[in-house]
Design a protein that fits this description.
mainly alpha, about 350 residues
Length: about 350
C-alpha cells in the first residue's frame, strides 16, 4: 500500500487534505457593514448647525418689522428649552418604542440599539437648571452668581415648576440606568405637566383648558418624534439579522403615529384659536412673531405629514417594505427642526387678543 497522503497546506488537516483556511475560517451569513460615508456626516453637521441657528437668529427674524419688543435672553431661553424638549422626546420615545417592539413576535430585544435615555435625561436636567437660574434672576439671564435669588425658586409658581423639572429629570436619569428603564415615564410625565402649567399662568383666561391642550399636544409630540427616532435605530440595527421584525415594529409605530398626529392637529388648532381669534389668524400669522413662528412650524409639520404618508405607502408593499426607511428618516429630521421651532414659540411674545 502506498504511504503517500494528500498534500495539505501548513496547519491543515492531514487526514482530509482540507486547507487550514477552510477548517478554521467561519462562514459569515451577515452582509458586510457599510462604512459611514463622509456625505452623511456632513449632512448631519449641517442639520445640527441649522438647528443651532434657530435659537440665535430665529427671534430676530420673527420679530423683524412687527413692532414687538424682544425680551432679554430670548435666544438663550430658546436654546435651553429646545434641549429640554429634545431630551424629553428622546427618553419618552425610547420607552414607547421598546413597548411597541415587545409586541412583535420573535423580536430580538436582546440586540436592541443602545439607549440614549441616560444622556438625554442629564442634558434635560442641565437645560432645566439653566431655565431655573433664569427664573431665580427674575426671568433674566444671570451674568454672575450673585444675581441669583434662590428664594425666588421656592416663593414663586414658576420657580417651583422649574425645580420640579430639575428633580424629575434627575429621577428619569436614575431610572434609565436601572433594571426598569420604563419607570422613567412617570418623572417625564411630571416634566410635561410642569411645562403645561408654566405655559398658561393663572392670569390668562381659562388657564386649565390651555394647560390641558398643551399637555396632550406635548405628550403626543414627544411620542411621535422620539418614538420614530428609536424605531429607525431599530430598523437600522436589525436590517440584516431580523429585517421582518424591524419592519413590523415600524408598522406598529405607523398605526399609533396616525392617532398621535390627529391629536396633535386638534390640540394645535384649539390652542391657536385660544391665542388668536378666528377673525385675526391670517393677519397675526404674518404680522406677529408668534404667528410667523407658528406658520413656519405648521408648514414643516405638513412636510412631515407628506413624508409619513410616503413611508406608510411603502410599508404596504410586499416586495420592498424596507424602503420606507428613507422617507421615515427625512420625517424624523424634520421633526427635530419642529422641536426647535416649538422652543422658539415659547420664547417670543404671546400675541395680543384683538
Amino acid at each position: 500500500m502506498s504511504s503517500i497522503r494528500p498534500s495539505v497546506e501548513p496547519g491543515g488537516d492531514a487526514t482530509t487534505g482540507v486547507p487550514a483556511a477552510a477548517v478554521t475560517a467561519p462562514v459569515s451569513h451577515r452582509a458586510p457593514r457599510r462604512r459611514p460615508s463622509a456625505g452623511r456626516a456632513v449632512a448631519v453637521l449641517v442639520l445640527v448647525a441649522v438647528a443651532a441657528l434657530i435659537p440665535l437668529l430665529g427671534p430676530s427674524a420673527a420679530l423683524h418689522g412687527t413692532g414687538e419688543a424682544r425680551a432679554p435672553g430670548t435666544g438663550g431661553i430658546t436654546f435651553l428649552r429646545a434641549v429640554l424638549f429634545a431630551a424629553l422626546c428622546v427618553q419618552l420615545g425610547e420607552v414607547f418604542a421598546v413597548r411597541l417592539a415587545r409586541r412583535v413576535p420573535g423580536a430580538p430585544l436582546d440586540r436592541a440599539p443602545r439607549g440614549w435615555s441616560a444622556y438625554a435625561a442629564w442634558a434635560g436636567c442641565a437645560a432645566a437648571l439653566g431655565l431655573a437660574a433664569i427664573v431665580a434672576n427674575g426671568n433674566l439671564v444671570p451674568q454672575e452668581l450673585s444675581d441669583l435669588d434662590i428664594g425666588r425658586l421656592y416663593d414663586t409658581r414658576d420657580g417651583r415648576l422649574a425645580l420640579l423639572e430639575v428633580n424629575a429629570f434627575i429621577v428619569a436619569a436614575l431610572c434609565a440606568r436601572s433594571r426598569r428603564p420604563a419607570g422613567a415615564a412617570l418623572p417625564l410625565a411630571a416634566v410635561i405637566v410642569a411645562e403645561a402649567l408654566r405655559a398658561h399662568p393663572p392670569v390668562e383666561d381659562t388657564p386649565l383648558l390651555g394647560s390641558g391642550l398643551t399637555l396632550v399636544h406635548l405628550t403626543c409630540g414627544a411620542l411621535w418624534a422620539g418614538g420614530l427616532l428609536y424605531v429607525l435605530r431599530i430598523l437600522r440595527g436589525w436590517r440584516t439579522s431580523s429585517p421582518e421584525e424591524a419592519v413590523a415594529v415600524l408598522g406598529l409605530y405607523a398605526r399609533v403615529a396616525a392617532v398621535l398626529f390627529a391629536a396633535i392637529t386638534a390640540t394645535g388648532v384649539c390652542s391657536t384659536l385660544r391665542r388668536m381669534p378666528a377673525g385675526t389668524v391670517l393677519d397675526q400669522l404674518t404680522g406677529t412673531a408668534y404667528g410667523r413662528t407658528l406658520l413656519a412650524k405648521v408648514l414643516l409639520v405638513l412636510a412631515v405629514a407628506l413624508l409619513a404618508v410616503l413611508a406608510r405607502r411603502r410599508l404596504r408593499r410586499g416586495s420592498d417594505r424596507a424602503s420606507a426607511y428613507l422617507p421615515a428618516r427625512g420625517e424624523v429630521i424634520a421633526l427635530g427642526v419642529v422641536v426647535v421651532l416649538s422652543a422658539l414659540l415659547t420664547a417670543v411674545p404671546v400675541p395680543i387678543r384683538w
